[in-house]
């Protein structure tokens, strides 16, 4: 097996044009969050993505004691405490019973003293539809403006959607798109969840997958996602295997091409996530709603890698800062 590719900060480097577009996007995020309570018709400011919370739970991560010696320094405890937020990717809090099947499984990992080790926002679709940072920022800005009922942004939104469309027509993206369509009515906890972009593992780079073990995909289909998830956690334990892929060859495992799957790098199991029945927290509690899963708060050796990932740093921060400011004003 070849040696893993080592992390280099050039993977994350943005051009001057991309930095300028990021500033425009940050302004659109702040404006969106300021108006989000009226956009979603709720009594608090929401996130600008994955706005709808289904549940927040406590969990644990148990590393595999048989991991290779080079990985053991990263997983040197028997157990790590987790806080997990389940969400929907929509920018608005949709009150209808039927949601688009785009789910989040965001994990906050804490050390034994309660300090943060890592945040991993995982999603149930392994790929990202846009590789170009400029195209993504312009598209995301147009979406924010359109949802703020700025109808003059409809044409720019359509233009950006058309610009992004060619990246959807890869074998990987089409295959996973059809698979998601086939599973669209499955129970939220029965999906695999992925990191999409890459993360550091010390000097190396990895992708992450969480796969549920023995979860009925037809669990309580008559209930909406929030009700079904709450019922499951109240009455069942959950176990999911945690797997990683390592980057060995940038041609087969590209860092900044997120619309294709990595190939020639097998997933291997590094541990399990467990959620004991009765571990449900109050998702509507202000502290839980204000939680951030910004992966740039991770310890240095678990930081995100890549240009699209790099955007998360400042966009998460501006979203959180604005939410905190607005919610403080709304609730005193």
Automatic annotation (TrEMBL):
In terms of SUPFAM superfamilies, this protein maps to: Heme-dependent catalase-like (SSF56634)
Q: Which GO terms describe its molecular function?
A: heme binding
Question: Record's superkingdom?
Answer: Bacteria
The name this protein goes by in its record = Catalase
Biological classification of the source: Bacteria, Pseudomonadati, Bacteroidota, Flavobacteriia, Flavobacteriales
């Amino acid at each position: 097996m070849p040696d893993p590719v080592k992390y280099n900060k050039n993977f994350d480097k943005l051009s001057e044009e991309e930095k300028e577009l990021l500033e425009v996007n940050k302004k659109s995020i702040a404006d969106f969050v300021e108006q989000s309570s009226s956009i979603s018709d709720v009594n608090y400011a929401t996130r600008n993505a994955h706005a709808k919370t289904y549940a927040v739970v406590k969990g644990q991560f148990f590393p595999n004691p048989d991991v290779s010696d080079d990985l053991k320094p990263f997983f040197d405890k028997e157990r790590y405490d987790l806080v997990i937020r389940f969400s929907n990717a929509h920018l608005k809090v949709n009150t209808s019973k039927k949601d688009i099947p785009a789910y989040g499984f965001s994990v906050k990992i804490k050390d034994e003293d309660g300090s943060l080790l890592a945040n991993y926002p995982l999603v149930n679709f392994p790929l990202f539809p846009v590789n170009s940072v400029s195209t993504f920022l312009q598209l995301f800005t147009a979406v924010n403006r359109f949802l703020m009922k700025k109808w003059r942004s409809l044409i720019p939104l359509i233009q950006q959607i058309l610009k992004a469309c060619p990246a959807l027509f890869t074998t990987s993206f089409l295959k996973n798109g059809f698979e998601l369509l086939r599973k669209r009515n499955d129970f939220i906890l029965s999906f695999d969840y992925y990191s999409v972009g890459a993360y550091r593992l010390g000097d190396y780079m990895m992708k992450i997958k969480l796969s549920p073990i023995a979860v009925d995909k037809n669990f309580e289909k008559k209930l909406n996602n929030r009700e079904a998830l709450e019922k499951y956690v109240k009455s069942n334990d959950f176990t999911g295997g945690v797997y990683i892929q390592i980057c060995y060859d940038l041609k087969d495992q590209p860092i900044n091409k997120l619309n294709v799957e990595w190939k020639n790098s097998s997933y291997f199991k590094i541990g399990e996530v467990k959620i004991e029945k009765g571990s449900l927290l109050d998702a509507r509690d202000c502290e839980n709603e204000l939680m951030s899963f910004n992966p740039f708060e991770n310890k240095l050796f678990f930081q995100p890698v890549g240009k699209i990932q790099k955007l998360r740093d400042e966009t998460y921060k501006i979203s959180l800062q604005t939410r905190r400011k607005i919610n403080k004003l709304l609730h005193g």
